[in-house]
Amino acid sequence: MQPIIQINDLAKKYKDAEFYSLNHFSLDILQGEIFGLLGPNGAGKSTLISILCGLIDPTSGSFSIKGLDYNRHAFALKKIIGVVPQEYALYPTMTARENLVYFGSMYGIKGRDLKDKVTQSLEFLGLLNFADRRVETFSGGMKRRVNLIAGILHEPEVLFLDEPTVGVDVQSKNAIIEYLQRLNRNGTTIVYTSHHLAEAQEFCTDIAIVDQGRVFAKNTPQALIAETPNAKDLEDVFLSLTGKGLRDAV
Amino acid sequence: MLYKIYQSVLKEILLLSRDLGGAIILFVMPLVLVITVTLIQDSTFKQTGNAKIPILLVDHDHGKVSQSVNDNLAKSNAFDVISRFDNQPITEAQAKEAVFKGKYQLAIVIPADLSHDLQAKIDQNVNKIMTSFGVGDSSATATDKKKVTQKEVKLYFDPAVQIGFKNGVMSAIDQMISQIETQSIYAAFKEQLGETEFDFEQQSFINFKEIVPTIGNKEVKPNSVQHNVPAWTLFAMFFIVIPLSINIVKEKSQGTFVRLQTNPVRTWVVMAGKTITYLIICMLQFYMILAVAFFVFPHLGLPPLHFNFSLMLMSLVALFCGFAAIGYGILVGTIAKTQEQSAPFGSTSVIILAAIGGVWVPVFAMPEMMQIVARCSPMNWGLNAFYDVILRQARLVDVLPEIGLLFLFFLLTTTIALLYDKKKRTV
């Protein structure tokens, strides 16, 4: 299978920072994968996602998505990616439908197509009955689901998710995971960060464990467990590679 | 592109409509501001206002001069002259204490023998002149050679009284006394000449006539409303900076701005949506204020706004003032990190811009350095353009430089905001 994301020697050092957040980071992510990007706080996951989404510029290095080089096709890249940020990036005083129509329209989706996509997504994630209620009245799980829909209305080829299930109940989490698996079956490559290692072990087809701005290990969850002495699950692999010391990122 | 701008405008309108309190403030507060300030300013300059300023008169003279001062002050309708406390004549010490404690704003102390000494001094001078022409009474010159000392009319002002008021009162009293002196000189000449039937023409020979612009044969005399409405409308329009900058800061804090940055939409498209929406608000504010000035002001005892100017041109000026205000709001909102930064900074800076721009004090009355600063202020450009249209009957070509500068200010501030936003991404 072809790599859909190719990251070459990417580095990022924030202004006034002592260390590189990403340090000669190289990685290939294959088309159709559900790729888990795991690491402790301050490992460089969010920095990597922010660069890949075009939110911040790398200090050096390059990357391409579906053959489009970031340095030359930054705007075109945004049309084929979808982003689901960790915070609820929604207008609280607008209804779920109004939010989704607005964000969908920013991808150029119009008219009947836009309406249908919004309705179908809301229905699939169990929100159709609440479509015309303001987002500020929603529970955390409901907001999380609207947040997800806002990132996938345009059916992106690559979807970046930053902890999409954090702070939600089991039912919402299940609905989100099912929806993401459906998207993946329809051809969307998913890049996902999470601190829920059990969820990642179950959900991801491939995983990279990153720390100190570098890739420590990359393989399928099963292979990673098998490679690590005395590891029963992904959490054992994670602790073995990144250590048990506290990582308080500031 | 147009579709995305259109959707952004719809979104902004939705957000505004969901904040009913905010929307009411956006439209009602400018009206309250314009009405309040115009009412205050109008009564300040009205000669026939109901409110009279009480002033104390301490009369040690009891003569012609003090009587004349008293009569003139009473006639002016602006002052209520008080010369007695508890049926007793006011002493200088009482007057001084009352004024310095702020109970009264002004006390006038007329010195003893002012009328007598003034007359004596005039008689001496007139006699001297007449004698030099050989028609004077030389015996009188010999007897009235006593030294007449200069007299002082003392004025006590409440320290809180503003300099403008102080100067106005001092000039009025000075004028009054000069008039009394002139009349006394004429009277002295008349007496010396012994011409009982001869009457000097005592009316001022030189008069002032204000020539105002005309439309056709009709004079366009500016009133306080013609002055206040443009100035305070502009001020109110610039207050759009506060809700707009809060809107931008909110988008950043709730993550929607970050989401938009990951979408295939340029930041300027998002800002164009905001610009169009807030321009609509600015224009609605403008037309509402004009409508209130025309329909409501007469019911509040104010002169109505005379529409003897081009409404189209006035609207064009308002539109470009709106552009300048919005550009500034976008810049403040982009640079501010929190609402606690944007709201106080936005409001304070608008007040400073208004002060610099000549909304409070006319630019020509400012110190030289501030006049230079004022020429760089967008509010000054806007105010000048408004005055050009309303009071100077200007045409489009006359206001082009001002509206050009206002638009340039919009372009400059939004460009700085967009560059600043871009630079933040290279942290």
From TrEMBL, chain A:
Alphabetical list of PROSITE patterns matching this protein: ABC_TRANSPORTER_1, ABC_TRANSPORTER_2
Superkingdom of the organism of origin: Bacteria
Keywords assigned by UniProt, alphabetized: ATP-binding, Nucleotide-binding
A GO MF term: ATP hydrolysis activity
Pfam families found in the cross-reference section: ABC_tran
Record-annotated ABC transporter domain positions: 5-237
Name of this chain's protein: ABC-2 type transport system ATP-binding protein
UniProtKB/TrEMBL annotation, chain B:
Keyword Transport: yes
UniProt record similarity statement: Belongs to the ABC-2 integral membrane protein family.
UniProt main location, coarse: membrane
Record organism: Flavobacterium caeni
Name of the protein in its database record: ABC-2 type transport system permease protein
Compartment list: Cell membrane
Keywords recorded for this protein, A-Z: Cell membrane, Membrane, Transmembrane, Transmembrane helix, Transport
GO molecular function (one): ABC-type transporter activity
Lineage: Bacteria, Pseudomonadati, Bacteroidota, Flavobacteriia, Flavobacteriales
Protein's membrane topology: Multi-pass membrane protein
One Pfam short name: ABC2_membrane_3
Residue span, ABC transmembrane type-2 domain: 170-424
GO cellular component: plasma membrane
InterPro entries: ABC-2_transporter_component, ABC2_TM, ABC2_TM_bact-type
Membrane-spanning intervals of the chain: 20-40, 229-249, 276-297, 309-331, 343-365, 403-420
Keyword Transmembrane among record annotations: yes
Domain of life, source organism: Bacteria
